[in-house]
């Protein structure tokens, strides 16, 4: 389960999946999902191929570099939300946005709302407000 893993454990999951893919080894269903997402981001391939050194890399906001692990994990979170339709209505928002371009671009658009919801929750010391999050996504889809 993800809840008992450290940051390094989660990062290792991404790296291991990519290494197993590169070595043409069998993948678990989760590893296959991770590899599918990494494949959509060729800008991360060479970086991940550096191996274990990427596990300890820090991504300070002032550095201006996107954290690949966070970016990819947000894709996973969105796919889980869409798959379970939680918050209820997110699947329809995703479909609307994907119809305008594609699934990957829809997820990139939705990440801003997810990031805001998580940041607000962390700042307030509470769980994310699904209603506000969904309303933010619906505004995005209605533009």
Describe this structure in words.
The protein has helices at residues 7-22, 29-39, 45-48, 68-84, 90-100, 103-124, 130-142. With 143 residues, it is mainly α. It has two domains: 1-57, no CATH class; 66-143, no CATH class. The radius of gyration is 16 Å and the shape is globular. The termini are far apart. The model has no long low-confidence stretch (mean pLDDT 92).
Structure in a nutshell:
The chain has 143 residues and is mainly α.
Number of domains: 2
Radius of gyration: 16 Å
Unreliable spans: none
Mean pLDDT, nearest integer? 92
**Basic shape:** globular
Main beta sheet: none
Could you estimate the helical fraction of the residues in percent? Answer: 55-70%
Order of helices and strands: HHHHHHH
Q: Helical stretch count? A: 7
- Which range does the strand content fall in? under 5%
The beta-strand count equals 0
Instruction: For the record, give the distance between the C-alpha atoms at the N and C termini, rounded to a whole number.
Output: 37 Å
Helix-strand makeup class: mainly alpha
Primary descriptors:
143 residues; mainly alpha; 2 domains; 7 helices
Topology readout:
Blueprint: H1 7-22, H2 29-39, H3 45-48, H4 68-84, H5 90-100, H6 103-124, H7 130-142
Helix pairs in contact: 1-2, 4-5, 4-6, 5-6, 5-7, 6-7
